[in-house]
Amino acid sequence: MTSIVQPEDTQVAVTERTAWHAGAGAAVAAFVGFLALVAGAVGLVILSISTQTPVLIVGAVVLAIAALLLVSMVVVVAPGHTLVVQLFGKYVGTVRAQGLGLVLPLTTRQRVSVRVHNFETAELKVNDSTGNPVNIASIIVWQVADTARATFAVEDYEEFIVSQAESALRHVTTSHPYDADEAVAGATSLRGSTDQVAAELAEQVAARVELAGLEILEARISSLAYAPEIAQAMLQRQQASALLAAREKIVEGAVGIVENALTRLEENGTVELDDERRAAMVSNLLVVLCSDSRTTPVVNTGSLYS
Description:
alpha+beta, single chain, about 50% helix, four-stranded antiparallel sheet
């Protein structure tokens, strides 16, 4: 019977801790000791040759080895970088202190940058929640928070975050429509709710890269558009919606103007209008106010009833 391997069973259980580290003073002393040991080794070699005493060569070799071990302890850590220290393959800690210093001998060190990084994902073609294909891309700002996890938990943390960011972007895109329905109050959309979508994207990416010891500082949508095969149809739809909204606004304003005109005429007693004359006046004013083209006036010299 085949068992299913759980994700936690495959993760490397390691977290960052501080490695032993001495400051610049100790590093300078170690360098002076290195010079002294080298001088002693050279002196023993010269003395061995001059006195014909081969046994002194052994002492010179010992001093040379000690000098090499001593100088190998000296490290320099640049700002924005750390050293992940291993002793015979075992993680012993991370050095974050900047400048000159000493670490344990016989250790290997790997430099890991903790500076802020950013990258832009490839433009992905994804269906939104309504099934419309959209092209979308994002910018992710991140940095290494746990150097031990970044080094040992994943093979390549830079490649890992790129693939996980694209996966999170696909998930967020399929959860929202490109445009929200105006009839639904508080509805979110990729185009209209950019801050909310960005926050959700950052949360999704952070959850995916936590095991690699990475921290997401910011996530933003950098590119968003309908896929080319439906872009023209969606543009016509948007234009139609905009035209209807504009017409509705024009009609609403025209009705208000007509109501105001009729009220003022009646209040001032300028003219008395019966229902038929009122209807004619309303019709004429609405035509003038709502027409797309310039209205040509017609002078009526007769009676409305003849």
